[in-house]
Amino acid sequence: MVKQFLGYAVPSALAMCIASLNTIIDGVFLGNGIGDAALGAVNIVMPITIVFFGLATMVSVGGGALISKYFGANEDEKGISIFRQVTYMLIIMSICLSAVCVIFAKPIVKMMGATENLQPLAAEYLKYYAMFCLPSLLGIAFNSFLRNDNRPKLAMVSTICGTISNIILNYIFIFELGLGIKSAAIATGFGQIVTLLIALPHFIFKKGKLSFGKQNLEINIIKEVFRIGLPSFFAEAAFSVIIFVHNLVLVNTIGEIGISTYAIINYITTNIYLVLLGVTLGAQPLISYNYGAQDSEKMLVFYKLSNKTSFIIGIIF
User: Fold this and answer.
1) Contact yes or no for 179/40 (Cβ under 8 A)
2) Domain locations in the chain?
3) CA angle 106, 112, 116 (to 5 degrees)
């Protein structure tokens, strides 16, 4: 069971670790290529990007838990139905988020505490970031569903390839083409597209149990997905609120340099958070599957292994 746990948790944590290093490199490129104001502007938008991530995590955790549960109970058709419904939900959510953030970018960043100097930069970053909501949210969710469909290594590969693409494009857009702060948002968006393109063939060509197809949305299923996924969303939202409040305090006490400094600290803390999240997301399919199979002994073993691993990682960091 330890080997099985490591087979899921290690690829997931490694993928999140690589993805988290990407945030540091983003900061290095922005700070050196554009300046302190760019770091501050991105930090103003960070609470919103975390909420995006939280929404994708909420739906993928809620849906993934049900999918693995039904797979464990040998009710594959129910699991496939939930996957298709969650995909529709993500598409609808993504389109709505993109429309709102692109149209109302300036008032949103002003509300988030951006100063007069940071508002144009923050609004530009948010607008371009929001344009890629669809591949971003689907990429996060499909990676999670790959783990539910017994392909944790493919999920790791897709995340790492997306991260590498992001890094390369960031350098080209910022230093070679001089596109400014929108470079980071566009590079992140294209990185998510790469992640999505690597994950999609698994579902399109039915290489596992999960596949695309016609499916009506069922209110009871949607409610269940949200019920299970909401705690994950609230965890992300709490992190978002903390950054938002700190930004407001810093801009009113220290100024823009305070926000830029806090942005660097956030790069570090986000890395720790993502690695821990990777461990738990890796354990989730195993716990949910054995819950559905009514094997409480195995379920508790995976739960305890996840807690112990997270505790050790926390001490190391």
Assistant:
1) no
2) 2-316
3) 55
Per-residue pLDDT of the chain (317 residues; tens, 9 = 90+): 777 777 877 777 777 777 766 667 777 787 788 877 887 888 888 888 888 888 888 888 888 888 888 888 888 898 899 999 999 999 999 999 999 999 999 999 988 888 888 889 899 999 999 999 999 899 888 988 888 888 888 988 998 899 889 889 988 988 888 888 888 889 889 999 999 999 999 999 888 888 888 888 888 888 888 888 888 788 778 878 888 888 788 877 887 778 778 877 877 777 787 788 778 877 877 887 787 788 888 888 888 888 998 899 889 88
- Which residues, including other chains, have CB under 8 Å from residue 17's CB and lie 6 or more apart? 271, 274, 275, 278
Record the tokens describing residue 251, joined without a space.
């801009």
